[in-house]
Every structure is written in structure tokens, then in C-alpha cells.
Amino acid sequence: MNIAKVLDAKGLACPMPIVKTKKAMNELQSGEVLEIHTTDKGAKNDLTAWAKSGGHELLKYNEENDILKFWIKKG
């Protein structure tokens, strides 16, 4: 997977991870992948729903050491 940008949203509470993701996504070209790191537990539902509603694709999600990682491909 080729990552175009990594967004560090650790320590931010809702809605900031979504706000920062949206801003970072606007800087990418269609088909590029954004990797997001967050500690906000609500981000799993939030980012999944946001990606779907925005026409993006959530490629992968995992959690390690209390850090949630998402890979979203811009639609």
C-alpha cells in the first residue's frame, strides 16, 4: 500500500480527528491513501461512517497499543 500522507491525530477528542482527516483528505488526489493515527475510541465508528458518506474507501483498520490506525483511499 502506497501511503500519500500520515495524519497524527493522537490525543485529540471528537470531532477533531474527523476535522483533521477532512482537511488532509482535501490535499490528496483521487486514489491516494491517507493513514490516520488516533487515540479517540469513537473514531472507529466516526471515520468509518465519514469515509462511506464522502465516497472514500476504508481499506484497513487496526489497533495497537491504544492507537487506532486507519487507511482511507480517497474516492
CATH topology: Translation Initiation Factor IF3
Poorly predicted segments:
none
Q: Into which percent range does the helicity of residues fall?
A: 25-40%
Mean pLDDT: 96
Overall geometry comes to globular
Structural class: alpha+beta
Number of domains: 1
So what's the CATH class?
A: Alpha Beta
Tell me about this structure.
The chain has 75 residues and is an alpha+beta fold. The chain has one domain (3-73): Translation Initiation Factor IF3, CATH 3.30.110. The protein contains 2 helices and 4 strands. The protein has helices spanning 16-26, 43-53; strands at residues 3-9, 33-38, 57-64, 67-73. A 4-stranded mixed β-sheet has the order 1-2-4-3, covered by helices on one side. The longest helix is centred in the N-terminal third of the chain and has 11 residues, at 16-26. It is globular and about 30 Å long. Belongs to the sulfur carrier protein TusA family. Residues 7-31 form the UPF0033 domain. This is UPF0033 domain-containing protein. It comes from Neobacillus cucumis. InterPro entries: TusA-like (IPR001455), TusA-like_sf (IPR036868).
